[in-house]
Each structure stands twice: as C-alpha cells, then as structure tokens.
Amino acid sequence: AGRGVGSYSCFTQTRGSSGGKATAAEGGTCPLCRGCFQKKQRLKCTHEFCAECLKISVDSLGLLCPVCHKPLSYIGDQPEGEMKWVEYWLSFRDRYYHITYLIQNGIQTGAHPNPGKPFVGIRASGYLPNTPEGKEVLRLLKRAFDQRLIFTVEATSEGADRVVYNDIPHSENLAETSTPGFLEKVKAALRAKGIE
C-alpha cells in the first residue's frame, strides 16, 4: 500500500481475512522490478516500491532509499485518526500505559485497495508496561502512528473493506505485556518499517 496513482493502472489480487480474493488497483510501476506495484510502500522521500523489492534492497543497501539514498522513512496508507494514551497504576510498582486508537469510517483514497469505496474504521486499544523499555516502545509507536504505519485498509471479498493492524503487534491484555520478548517483538516489527 502506498500513495499516488501512476499514469496507468496495474491490477493485483489481494486476499481478505476471509480468504476470498479482491481486486486492487495500485497504479504505476516499481522502479526496482519494473513491474506493477505489489503491496506498494511509499517512503518519506516520496519514492515508491513493492514491499518485497524494498525488503530486498534494505537487505543489500541498508536503511537507505534505493533511488535517492536518503535514510529510509516510510509513509503508510493509514487513514486519518487519533492515538491517545493514559498511565494507570495497579500498585506502587505496577504501572502501565493504556493506548487507544480511533479511526472513523471513511472513503478510500488512491493509496488504498479500492479508491472511492467506503471502509469501516476501527476502535482499538493496547497496553505497554511503564518501564524504560515500555516508554521507548510507546515513543516508537507514536512515530509509527504519525507516519501512518500502525493500520492499513484491507480489501475483503464480502462486505465493506476495513481498517486492520498493519503487522505491528499490540497487547490487548495486561498479562501479555510482561511476556518475555513481547516488547522486542514490537520493536522488531517497527524496525521492519523503518522506525527505530
């Protein structure tokens, strides 16, 4: 997913969560493979690539744009919304952040699978421990949200397309926040999107 529409349309097949196919028009071509965009990614420098082509480039070049060589920074296709958090205390030592996200229903843009069609928004929440590492992850999640990377619009074969998490794990219960490796898993997913 990315922004912008090229001079002609390429059609790709995507799968909704129900397993059915949905047609997605993502105009333009990738400058790396010269083919139609597959899961288009747009960088802050405005260059666009297939997600897999960009991953291969990052593996060989590092975190640089393969066209202009500026440091990698993604801009996603997340619809406009809001992210808030509050701090809660369970006890003197047990503190955590409760994060809430709200994206209203809307109309898809050229960056989404079916431009001009409606999508169903999302109200979601997650938890992070109020520890030094938890604070760091909260800061990274805020950056990712500002760069429109936390959510995306998913095409479905039945009913309206909908907003879903974009491969960045979130803890929906307090117990999961203390699971060994959980925060590192979130940081790894954010690193894969250029947030570190």
Structure commentary:
- With 196 residues, the chain is an alpha+beta fold.
- The protein folds into two domains: 11-75, 2-Layer Sandwich (Herpes Virus-1), CATH 3.30.40; 82-191, Enolase-like, domain 1.
- 20% of the residues lie in helices and 30% in strands.
- The chain is built from four helices and twelve strands, in the order ββββαββββββαββαα.
- It has a four-stranded mixed beta sheet, with no helix packed on it. Strands 4-3-5 form a three-stranded antiparallel beta sheet. A three-stranded antiparallel beta sheet has the order 6-7-10.
- β1 (11-15) and β2 (21-25) form a beta hairpin.
- α2 packs parallel to α4 (182-191).
- The longest helix has 15 residues, at 132-146.
- The model is unreliable at 1-26 (pLDDT under 50).
Q: Mean pLDDT, nearest integer? A: 83
Structural domains: how many: 2
The CATH top-level class label of the largest domain = Alpha Beta
Report the total helices: 4
Order of strands across the main sheet: 8-9-12-11
Radius of gyration: 18 Å
InterPro entries: Deltex_C, Deltex_C_sf, Deltex_fam, Znf_RING, Znf_RING/FYVE/PHD, Znf_RING_CS
Subcellular location: Cytoplasm
EC number: 2.3.2.27
Enzyme class: transferase
Produce the secondary structure layout.
Elements: E1 11-15, E2 21-25, E3 40-43, E4 48-50, H1 51-61, E5 74-75, E6 82-89, E7 95-103, E8 106-107, E9 118-120, E10 122-129, H2 132-146, E11 151-154, E12 161-165, H3 174-177, H4 182-191
Parallel strand pairs: 9-12
Antiparallel strand pairs: 1-2, 3-4, 3-5, 6-7, 7-10, 8-9, 11-12
Helix pairs in contact: 2-4
